[in-house]
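[job 4471] stage=fold_predict status=RUNNING
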Amino acid sequence: MTGKAVAPWIRTRLRTAPGAAAALALLVLVTAWLAAAYPRGVDTYEDEGLRRTVASAPPGRTALQFTAGAPGLALPDDQRAAMVGPEPMRQRFDAVVRNVPAPLTSDPTQSTYGLRTTRKLPSDEPYLPRPNGLPPRFTVASQADLGSHSRLVSGRLPAGSADQKAAEAEVAVTVETAKSLDLRAGSVLHVAGIGRPPLAFKVTGVVEPLLPEAGYWSVLPALRTPQLLPASDDRDAPKYWHGGLLLAPTAAATLFATDGKPEMYVQLTPQTTALTDRQLTAVKASLASLQSGPALSRLHTVYAASSSSYTELDQVLRSYQTVRDSIDPVVAVAGFGTATVAAVVLLMAGGLAASRRAAELALLRARGGALRQIAGRLLAESTVVVVPAAALGLLLAVLALPEGRFGPAIAAAAGVAALGCLALPVRAALTHRTVRSAAERADPVREKPSARRTVAELTLLALAVAAVFALRRRGTAGGPTDALLSAAPVLVGVIAALVLIRLYPLPLRWAARPATRLRGTVGFLSLARAGRAPGGGALPLLALLTALTTAAFGGSVLAGSDDARDRAALYATGTDARIGSDLPLPGDLPGRVSRVPGVQGISPVSIEYSVPLPAGAGSGQGAGGDVGEGENPGVIDRTTVAGVDPASYARLTAGTALGIDADRIKAPPDAPGKAVLPAIASPAVAHRLGKEPVTLHVAGKDLAVRVIAVQDRSAAVPQSDFLLLDTAGLGAKYATVLLVGGTSLDGKALREAAAGAHVSVALRSEVRQEYADSPLQTGAGRIYTAAVAAGAGLAALALLLSLLRGAPERSALLARLRTMGLTRRQGRSLLVLEALPSALLAGAGGALTGWASIALLAPGIDLAGLALANTGGLAPVGAELRADPMSLALPAVCVVLLAAGVAAAQAWWSGRRGTITELRAGDAR
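[job 4471] inference complete, writing structure tokens
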């Protein structure tokens, strides 16, 4: 008789406990999804941040610009003209494009080429505007493909061929050039020629750029928008208009007849849509090759022997890399913390399964089962459940985040699968190394650490000390992510968990002694049970402390970032809103602004810029010794003087870092110019003026002022050195700035109220939003928040697994005690008090460890990159890490409440099931 004598192991086990298998699959699915999503999420925000950085930089900085002198200087005129014709120039352009090394690529829609003047050509036509009596000057360029990048407004595009001997050439101008320089179709501009009569440029058409901010028009912005430029470097030098003329490519040779020193040029706008952070090193290498390497040498052959290249794209990439390198280590802290908690939870899940099947495995060992055979069957059983769940988690992560590398995501999901598969067989093999009938009791109170455990703990302690020391010394802003530095908070939490596990028996013993003298038995019994509860040993406390440390650290990081943005926005605007102008403000403007909904206060400010400071004033110390001896905050010879109304100014700035005492700067009752005015100064101004009265020439009159206080910044002049005076003493009649205070200010309504006054309006809320408006900052913030939230959820799951492991034994004990007269209220109190010692230890230890890790690591953590966008990673304010009380207390309280709630729920459920059900015959509990 043949047939299968034994049912298949895996099928039997899965049918026996489908709920446990489903729970394990769900845990692995979620963990694998989180693990695979983390690197893809980081890749996504880094790629978006890199593309935004390059795309938002001025095209003149990011474009690859190649220039060469005018060709054929020794050739006849006709041959020179042929060399700059449309077809030869096109061939040179194609050769340059082909010579750009990968992965650099150019955007063909915004790249162009041509011949242009390098000297500005003056034109003395009588109808041209002359702001200071100087004639306008022009840059003339035969920029290719003008028709595809503009819309014809009037006239026609320039056409027709012309050479060095031509008397006239056709050009086009943009709408802004025509408006500013009073040009129209038919206008003629004459420029001086070399050894010939003046050359006439006839405007045949006016065009409007289709994409004025794109590379075609913005690499050389004068071709699009005329500029008022000073004639020299002198501060008060007269200014002239500088405009651009767009020459027909077929008439490029006419520039040889001018004194403009023409040059050939190619400008390539980089393609950013496919740029990724992983290509950054290769892109920088390509740029180096183009600037002074093999690629530039090839340009000398394919373009011109005198060719040169210029770009600031490498500086733009370097600024992005600086911000990224300051953000990545901070984000990696949350990643390491969540990964540690996830690993602990998977190990606890395996431990829970092994403890539930301890009797079964002990019986198999007693009947001759080989340890390797049992471990192999458990591994196969786990693999059937874990591997498909991990694969599904990986698939969901890829679908949720389509961008990013596959390699790190696959490795992360594979790590989760490996840990999930090995947790149960390894734990079972370690527990049942020897044959025994029942598992030995492992009480935390009586358990003595082994020598191996002591060595492992000392090794972790050494790593933690090294990580903290390195992080404090090197910081997070000096280079790429270092795994040891980013793991420093996690290592601090792990060391704290190990220390608390060793100290855990002491408070239980101290509390058990007075509990023995109490009349009731619940207190003593709960403490005795707390020391014997089979909760999984060190793993639950390790998971909780790591999660709490990460949550406290992460909450403080996010709170510090928000605080840095708030302060930076305040220092940028001074108050909730700022309305300013270089000219006196209309007299009715304060009344109009005060009627805007949400406005609660207005303070007028009169500002005088570039007020000269007397030479040799001061003794090198600020007023009241605020700037100490030997401390030199900077040497300046001019400053900004602001006259404020002390009362309204103090009300608007009250409660902020820019607040002042109104009585201190109130002007004496004497007439302006007859009394010494008290002033508040920036450190540099205070250092220059000293403590004695000095005379300043402000607004056409001499004023005697004395610095009575030093303040780093002011609301009136938030971004430069200043001297703050009372308007009454200054004698100013007109305000140039309005400081506005209020809540929920409507920027649109505020700008409508100020319409027609030629002012700029800045809202603190809008400035704050700009600081956070970057894919790098916002993406990192989302990843950090998600990682901390995932870690908190996994920690809660670890606590539940710890309580579930001892749930059967607690239910049976509660049922037995009820047969002895224990009431339901006493049973509920017993389970809650039994769960509280470990929960309180974890909560208090987690809060303390979080505070300690922040105090230890704060000197090495730079939050500027994470907090502030559009500043190149350099914060205008301090962005240091501080402990956030809410981030410390809230997770700890939640742990205690969750433990107490689960224990109370178990007591209620056990009461509903009844004593007979819990003490059913044959129950191994």
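[job 4471] summary: Residues 619-631, 921-925 have pLDDT under 50 and may be disordered.
[job 4471] exit 0
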